[in-house]
Specification:
Distance between the termini: 45 Å
Transmembrane segments: 20-49, 85-105, 117-135, 169-188, 200-220, 263-284, 305-324, 344-373, 394-425
Number of domains: 2
Radius of gyration: 28 Å
Pfam families: Sulfate_transp (PF00916)
Number of strands: 8
Protein name: SulP family inorganic anion transporter
Number of helices: 22
Strand order of the largest sheet: 3-4-6-8
Keywords: Membrane, Transmembrane, Transmembrane helix
Domain SLC26A/SulP transporter: 13-400
Strand content: 5-15%
Order of helices and strands: HHEHHHHHHHHHHHEHHHHHHHEEEHEEHE
C-alpha cells in the first residue's frame, strides 16, 4: 500500500505530475486574477498557497487547490462593493475562518450527497468547456482571459461566439505551435512508447511542449517575423528579482473594514460558494483517482479554511479545490498529495527565479495541454457508459453538462441536482415493494407484495394506486418481514385496505409487521 511507501519512492511519479500541474496552473492563476479584476500577482499567491499550504494539510491524494474560475464574478462584485482590494482581502480571511468552523462542525458530509450522474456530468462539462475555451487560444486569439470558464465573457462574447470571432483573427504562428504541441502530447500518451522508452514515463509531455513552443517562437523571430507571437500571446508574469521585491508585490488586509457590513456579506458568500465548489471537486477527483481512495471532507474544509486565511493575509485570491488542476494531476500519474505541494513549490521558485523565461511561453502551447486535459475528461466512452445505465442516470448527466455550458459551474450543478432528485423521487414512488401475481385467470388470483427495507411517505401514492387496482376475489399477501421502517402514511393506507378487501371479497394476509417498524 502507498501508506507504507516513502515520499521519496513516490517522487518519481509526483514530481513530473507536479510539474505538469504547475504548467497548467500558471496561466489559469493569471487569467482568473485578470477576470476577477484583481492584481495579477494575487492569482499566483493563491496558487502557491493552494499548493503548499492546502496540499500539505489536505487528506486528498489527487485534488489540487488554487484560485477558482467559479468565484471570478463573486470576487469582482465583492471588490466593487467594498471599494478596496485590501478590504476584500479581509473578507477572504473571514471566509477562511468560516470554512474552518464548517469543517469542525462536520458540514463536509454534504459532499457525500451529490449523485454520481451529476458529478460525472460536471467532469464532462469541464472537459467540453476547456476544449471550447482553449480553441481560440490555440488559434492565437487571446482576448479572453485564459482562466475564464463562464458562458458570458468579459470581452463581450460568449463561449460559442468567441469561437466564431477567433476564426476571423487566426494567427498562423500560434496554429503551428498548437498542432505540433497536440501531436507531441498524443504521441507521449502512446502506451507502446511508454513501455519501450523510460523518457516517456519520467519526462512530462507538457514540459516538452512548453520548451518546443518557446523554441519555435524564437525561430519565428529569426526566420519568419510575420509569425512571431508578441507579448499579448505569451504568459505575462509579474517579475520579482529578489525576495525583497517579491515582498513588495504582497498586499495586506485593511483591518478597518471590520466596521463595514458589506464585509460580512462578502465573506459568508465566498465561504459558502468556495466550500460547495471544493466538495464538488473533491468528489469528482476521487472518482478520477485510479486507486479510488476516499478523501475526508471535513478535513478538507479545515485545510481550505486555513489556506484561505493565509491567502487573504498576504494578498491572494480565494482558493478552492479545482477540478482542472486535479484532473491534470491524475492524468500526469501522481500517486500522493505531494504532487500538489510540488506544483506550489514550482510556482514559488519559478516566479522568484525565472519570471523572464516563463514570460516566453506561448499561450498556444498551454492551450494544447488544456485541450488534452479537456479531451480526457469528456471522452465519447463516458457518454456511452452513462447512456447504457438508463435514463435515470443519463438525463441528469446530460442536463448537468448543458446547464454548466450555458451558465456556470454552481448553477449548472444546481440544475443537474434538480433533475437527479426528480428521478430519485420517481424511483421511490414506483418501487417501494416487489409485486408478483400468481395464478392469474384462475378462480382465486394470488398477489404477493414484498415491502422494501425502507418505505417512506414518498411511496404513499404508489401504494394507494397498487392496492386500489387489485381485482375482486384475489388473495393478497403483504410481506413486511424485511422492512425496517414503514412510514405511518403508508401503513394507514394498508390498514384502510382491510376494509376495502372485505367489500371486494379479497383475502388479505399481512406477514412480518411489527408495530415498532411504523414510524
Amino acid at each position: 500500500m502507498l501508506k507504507n511507501n516513502s515520499l521519496l519512492s513516490q517522487a518519481k511519479y509526483d514530481l513530473p505530475a507536479g510539474l505538469v500541474v504547475f504548467l497548467v496552473a500558471l496561466p489559469l492563476c493569471l487569467g482568473i486574477a485578470l477576470a476577477s479584476g484583481a492584481p495579477l500577482f494575487s492569482g499566483i499567491i493563491a496558487g502557491i498557497v493552494g499548493g503548499i499550504v492546502i496540499g500539505s494539510l489536505s487528506g486528498s491524494h489527487v485534488a489540487v487547490s488554487g484560485p477558482a474560475a467559479g468565484l471570478t464574478v463573486i470576487v469582482l462584485n465583492a471588490i466593487e462593493d467594498l471599494g478596496s482590494f485590501q478590504g476584500f482581502l479581509l473578507a477572504v480571511v473571514l471566509a477562511g475562518a468560516i470554512q474552518f468552523v464548517l469543517g469542525v462542525i462536520r458540514a463536509g458530509i454534504i459532499g457525500h450527497y451529490f449523485p454520481t450522474s451529476v458529478i460525472k456530468g460536471m467532469l464532462a462539462a469541464i472537459g467540453l468547456i476547456l476544449i471550447l475555451k482553449q480553441i481560440p487560444h490555440a488559434f492565437g486569439y487571446d482576448a479572453d482571459a485564459m482562466g475564464d470558464q463562464n458562458f458570458q465573457q468579459a470581452d463581450g462574447y460568449n463561449t460559442f461566439t468567441e469561437l466564431l470571432h477567433a476564426f476571423e483573427l487566426l494567427s498562423p504562428g500560434a496554429i503551428v505551435i498548437s498542432l505540433l504541441s497536440l501531436a507531441i502530447l498524443i504521441l507521449w500518451d502512446n502506451p507502446k512508447l511508454k513501455s519501450k522508452f523510460a523518457l516517456f514515463n519520467y519526462v512530462p509531455g507538457a514540459l516538452i511542449v512548453v520548451f518546443l513552443g518557446v523554441l519555435i517562437n524564437y525561430l519565428y523571430g529569426l526566420l519568419a517575423p510575420q509569425w512571431l507571437l508578441n507579448e499579448e500571446h505569451l504568459v505575462t508574469l509579474p517579475k520579482a528579482g529578489s525576495l525583497q521585491e517579491m515582498g513588495g508585490l504582497l498586499t495586506f488586509p485593511d483591518w478597518s473594514f471590520f466596521s463595514n457590513s458589506k464585509l460580512y456579506v462578502a465573506s459568508i458568500t465566498i465561504a459558502i460558494i468556495a466550500s460547495l465548489e471544493t466538495l464538488l471537486s473533491l468528489e469528482a477527483s476521487d472518482k478520477l483517482d485510479p486507486q479510488k481512495r476516499n478523501s475526508p471532507t471535513n478535513r478538507e474544509l479545515k485545510a481550505q479554511g486555513i489556506g484561505n486565511m493565509v491567502s487573504g493575509l498576504i494578498g491572494g485570491l480565494p482558493i478552492t479545490a479545482v477540478i482542472v488542476r486535479s484532473s491534470a494531476n491524475v492524468a500526469a500519474g501522481s500517486r500522493t498529495k505531494m504532487s500538489a505541494v510540488y506544483h506550489g513549490l514550482f510556482l514559488m521558485v519559478c516566479v522568484l527565479m525565472i519570471p523572464g523565461l516563463l514570460n516566453l511561453i506561448p499561450l498556444a502551447s498551454l492551450a494544447a495541454v488544456l485541450l488534452m486535459v479537456g479531451y480526457k475528461l469528456a471522452k465519447v466512452s463516458l457518454f456511452k457508459q452513462m447512456y447504457k445505465l438508463g435514463w435515470a442516470q443519463f438525463m441528469p448527466f446530460i442536463v448537468t453538462i448543458v446547464a454548466i455550458l450555458f451558465t456556470d459551474l454552481l448553477k449548472g450543478i444546481g440544475i443537474g441536482m434538480l433533475f437527479a432528485i426528480f428521478y430519485i423521487l420517481r424511483n421511490n414512488y414506483r418501487t417501494p415493494y416487489e409485486y408478483q401475481g400468481i395464478g392469474e385467470g384462475e378462480e382465486k388470483e394470488t398477489i404477493n407484495i414484498k415491502l422494501a427495507e425502507d418505505v417512506s411517505f414518498l411511496n404513499k401514492g404508489s401504494m394507494l394506486l397498487t392496492l386500489t387496482a387489485i381485482p375482486e376475489n384475489a388473495h393478497v399477501v403483504i410481506d413486511a418481514s424485511r422492512s425496517k421502517n414503514i412510514d405511518y402514511d403508508v401503513w394507514e393506507i394498508i390498514d384502510n385496505f382491510k376494509t376495502t378487501a372485505q367489500t371486494k371479497n379479497i383475502t388479505l394476509e399481512i406477514k412480518g409487521l411489527d408495530p415498532a417498524k411504523i414510524v
